[in-house]
RNA sequence: GCCCUUGUAGCUCAGCUGGAUAGAGCAUCCGCCUCCUAAGCGGAGGGUCCCCGGUUCGAAUCCGGGCAAGGGCACCA
């Protein structure tokens, strides 16, 4: 409908002899008193038209052919807006749409027939998920959900590093703890993972077997790390393999049980290394391809990518002099693989610590002549926990961090999701623990939840009086209060909120919209009584209330936040 | 030193890609339950949109230059 109106404005401009060089914008007005939609085209095109904005607005108004069943009124307003007031019967039809579509109201088809891949979390299985990972997890999941609501077929994907030094270090940590548990006195260097979870993994190993294998290696347990030796990989395999599995299961549990996040795909970095060390591996293919394009340089026994030639960045090492690839090479191979899987949209959700690495990967892909225009990289800033007005200190190495599990346990999944989603991802998030813990009106997530519970309660009250949101019996023209008009407007606008979020991939817009929605409803509640002796009025208002409930519930569903029946 | 992100009310943040009188929540102050849940509502005070230039009908928004904060600049991931 908005598109139709836009086209009609453009048609009117053309009839006035004006060439359209930038798309006409239609936005919600600042104030509903102006109308439901405003357009700044008269100001944008005034110069071209050789007229004052207000004159052009008036000319467009007279030239336009509007469908009066949709648009009741078109008006020109200073300094040069063209405002549109929607016809009540059209808005009433939106109520019918909500009631008819139910849990699907708000879906758009912008992405129909298209496939999207969203990669997020992708934390390595070397420790429990932290609060910082949580932000990426909730963002990625909700972006996926937004895309699904826009018609995309979405795959959520988790990529993790299950090779390399970090995993060997994990294995070495478990091995040394195992020896310590057996009563051996062995050093535990600072560089290793210090957390209690390492001991727990050690304890979860089959006792006899682990003891035997650990003791066989006991002679190697000095200050020099086995993980850094050529034979380290093979010797630590028993411990690192087990630890990796335990950690990965734990991470999956946190995401699925804690936050309700389910992935379709788990991709291992190992898959790109291949079994052999020859060119048949995926990273080997990438390396050969880059080399044949002259993008590779051998220097100091290492293999470098000439990033400087690609995007002006510094050259980077792809394969260390030890023969081991850096993370960049498998990353390039992984992204190449994603592209080859033919998605229409590829989204990467990364923490700020990756903000400097993805340009290299994209540059390499471009160097390989792969299409990258459909890749969207979403970078989110870090999370700091605030308690008693101060930052909670976190250090990963010393394991002095708050895990995501602990946070969810502390404040609940809905609060975690809400807090992570309510701010733009570009800004560092201060997570106020005391505020999050409150189950009172101070906590903004309850504002939304309470609005939903309140709507449900009203409908229940109606049922007691034998009244319901009966669309066929309702005379919707009775909905004449300003608050009712605003609610109709917001219900009508909701699909547009979803559609726009699908373009910007910014979940917080949905929260902002729902908060406005809840606010208007709460106010409505205080100015008007829904269930009264007036059967006709009650029925009309119950329809409105139920449509509000459905719209709010759908918004919360996108965010993955529960819409409670009562509180 | 270089790159990325950010700077809006006392605090935490929106501001719909350049428009209408810059908005919420919290905090402070004043009000509202004989009536569908007061986890709610109304009102008041509170602003150099970091600073200086530029672009134009018009800038919190775009550009340049400063200042400040966070993150990143490994043969770590």
Structural class: alpha/beta
Number of strands: 15
* Strand-residue proportion: 5-15%
Write the CATH architecture name of the domain at 91-110 and 441-559.
Orthogonal Bundle
Q: What percentage of residues falls in helices of 4 or more residues?
A: 40-55%
CATH superfamily of the domain at 91-110 and 441-559: Isoleucyl-tRNA Synthetase, Domain 1
Overall body shape: globular
**How many strands, which pairing sense, and closed or not: the largest β-sheet?**
5 strands, parallel
Q: List low-pLDDT spans.
A: none
Please tally the helical runs, counting DSSP H or I stretches of 4 or more residues.
22
The strand line-up of the biggest sheet is: 7-6-5-11-12
CATH topology (level 3) name of the domain at 91-110 and 441-559: Isoleucyl-tRNA Synthetase, Domain 1
What is the class of the domain at 91-110 and 441-559 in the CATH system?
Mainly Alpha
Cα-to-Cα separation, first versus last residue:
37 Å
Residue-averaged pLDDT: 91
- Rg measurement, Å: 29 Å
